[in-house]
Amino acid sequence: MLRTGEVAPDFELVNTKLERTKLSDFKGKNVVLVFYPGAFTSVCEKELCTFRDSITKFNRFEAVVLGVSVDSPFANRAFAEKNRINFELLSDFGAKVAKLYGGVHEDFLGVPGYVVCKRAVYVIDRDGRVVYGWVSEDPRREPDYGEIEDVLKNLA
Asked: Which residue of 4, 35, 46, 117 is surrounded by the most CB atoms within 10 Å?
């Protein structure tokens, strides 16, 4: 897990349109980086829809939301379309970024070789520094959305 005050490591992943997206593309904005275990799972759907419904507030704080999972860009696109997700979903199909930021669950649900991101949220300020980090070992546990909003308010 990254610590508050650290510079957030840059990365490049593919979005649902197969376009390369870098964290550094958002320098100058606050970023809410949301790692989720898997598209089309109930907790992930609830979590990402909660972020979707909060996007107007986040826009006021000059914050963008980026979702990251090990799912393919095609699965992420279908998931985004089904749930009307209004922010970028990025595919970390090698789990390299997830391992760097918050970790992964190996052999998830007892399936050998099945690796998913741990549920994690980071808020990264305009200068690229981590100002908030949360990682859960329990994939059923959602983040404290009010806490994230408070962090963004303080950055505005």
From this structure: 117
49 catalytic? Reply is: no
Q: Mean pLDDT, 10 residues at a time, over the chain (156 residues)? A: 91 97 95 95 94 90 95 96 97 94 86 90 96 94 95 91
Among 32, 33, 39, 44, the active-site one is 44
Q: Confirm whether 3 is domain-assigned.
A: no
Decide if 151 is inside a domain.
yes
- Render 32-60 in DSSP notation, one character per residue: EEEE-S-TT-HHHHHHHHHHHHTHHHHHH
Structural domain of 92? 12-16+26-155
Phi-psi region of 102 (alpha: psi -120 to 50; beta: other; left: phi over 0): alpha
Confidence (pLDDT) at 30: 95
